[in-house]
Design goal:
Elements: E1 27-28, E2 31-32, E3 37-38, E4 60-61, H1 62-70, H2 75-82, E5 86-90, E6 95-99, E7 108-111, E8 116-118, E9 121-123, E10 127-133, E11 139-145, E12 151-157, E13 161-164, E14 177-179, E15 184-185, E16 188-194, E17 197-205, H3 206-217, H4 228-244, E18 253-254, H5 270-278, E19 282-286, E20 289-290, E21 295-296, H6 344-351, E22 367-368, E23 374-379, E24 382-387, E25 391-395, H7 397-403
Helix pairs in contact: 1-4, 2-4, 3-4, 3-5, 4-5
Length: about 400
């Protein structure tokens, strides 16, 4: 595995702005950050933190990430600074179960505009399923017209779950399950018992989960303020944190400030969705295990963490796969054979305006990054780098140098 090196010369308050603001990049010192990123942080035993106020100050400072991104740091550089010694790894599509603490001790009453499935029955649009947990692990089911309308069916099931009509990720809003009087959720909703008390659980793909978490834990409008890289760093940290959790027998994590704040779909935003998609499957590891990568709203920029004090979870290969998705394709060289079309760098160059863009005209051919990490091409005023992790992106010359083996 390749260690990711921290950027040289951490600024005092503000570093000079780079000639070109880099886009997401998870590569450093010539190695593609697709294996692991060693990290250290403080773990005195208290669970996580709230994002309101200043937070506990452990791990990545969100305000520090914001400033660093505005200074031109990539997501990889931000993560390497706050979690020194950690490794970046990859996971296949993975299911996550989240305890909805806001629904503790309640019945489960949910529907979807497009219909849903419960107890092997297909609910029509407008029908609502009401589940009450049974001691044997099943549930009583009552189906009504609307949340408070006439009963159309009732019975019992040993499968206490309400499913959307399609269990795949990134489904349209009409398929999301809605709680009566509450918010919407992607994936399935079910019931479990904890010491005889009912608990509502949301099972969904971890990428869908992050669509709700990232804009709640970090401001989506930071993307409009030159800090999109901070959002990408947040997506990686939040993904790692959730998957490293093992809080309950029936769910890995929860939806409150005890874990990460997850309000379902109500806070989703296209700017943070782009950060999630750009880092899809990327996680932080320590010694090959998922790092419970804490972060906070510490206002002073924070400091690098001691990841040896952070808890770790399972190895990526031990995660619960999403059976509704095929595994991610094996990494490939970002260059595409000419017969298959233009390369990723060529596509990005044309997208930003070609020779009329800020990078200007090319000054050489596409070249390989060390260790097969990807490719890059020099232009008059900048560089375009392509990696398997995050595609093609514009960076400045200093950023390119940070990705290459250290020079004497």
């Amino acid at each position: 595995m390749q260690r990711i090196h921290r950027p040289r010369g951490r600024r005092g308050r503000r570093a000079p702005e780079p000639a070109l603001s880099p886009r997401p990049l998870l590569v450093a010192c010539g190695a593609l950050a697709a294996g692991a990123l060693a990290v250290t942080a403080v773990w005195p035993g208290t669970p996580y933190r709230a994002t309101t106020g200043d937070g506990h100050g452990r791990g990545m400072s969100q305000h520090g990430a914001f400033e660093s991104a505005q200074d031109g740091w990539t997501a990889e550089q931000i993560l390497a600074h706050y979690y020194p010694g950690a490794e970046l790894g990859r996971i296949d599509p993975t299911l996550l179960r989240v305890r909805l603490q806001t629904q503790d001790d309640a019945t489960l009453d949910a529907y979807a505009d497009a219909g849903a499935i419960v107890a092997d029955r297909v609910l029509e649009p407008g029908q609502v399923a009401h589940l009450t947990a049974l001691p044997d692990g099943g549930a009583n089911v009552v189906v009504t017209v609307g949340c408070d309308g006439e009963v159309v069916w009732q019975g019992a099931t040993d499968d206490p779950w309400i499913y959307p009509i399609d269990l795949g990720p990134n489904r349209p809003s009409a398929e999301h399950l809605e709680l009566c009087g509450g918010t919407g959720y992607r994936g399935a909703l079910g019931l479990a018992l904890e010491d005889g008390a009912p608990r509502t659980v949301n099972e969904l793909d971890v990428e869908d989960y992050l669509l709700g978490v990232v804009p709640t834990e970090m401001q989506a409008n930071w993307a409009d303020k030159g800090a999109a890289e901070a959002l990408r760093a947040q997506a990686v940290a939040a993904r790692s944190y959730a998957l490293a959790e093992q809080r309950y027998p029936y769910a890995q994590t929860c939806d409150s400030t005890d874990c990460q704040v997850y309000p379902g779909t109500v806070r989703e935003d296209p700017r943070t969705a782009a950060a999630v998609a750009a880092t899809a499957g990327t996680v932080l590891l320590r010694d090959g295990l998922l790092l419970r990568s804490e972060y906070s709203a510490a206002p002073d920029g924070g400091a690098p963490a001691d990841i040896e004090t952070f808890e770790v979870g399972p190895a990526p290969g031990d995660l619960r796969p999403n059976p509704y998705l095929a595994p991610a394709p094996a990494p490939r060289d970002p260059r595409v054979d000419a017969a298959e079309g233009p390369t990723a760098i060529q596509v990005e160059y044309q997208r930003i305006g070609g020779e009329q863009s800020a990078v200007g005209a090319p000054v050489g051919p596409e070249l390989d990054l060390p260790l097969g990490a990807g490719t890059y091409q020099l232009f008059v005023n900048g560089v375009i780098v392509a990696t398997d992790t995050l595609g093609a992106q514009v960076v400045d010359f200093d950023t390119l140098l940070s990705m290459l083996p250290e020079n004497p």
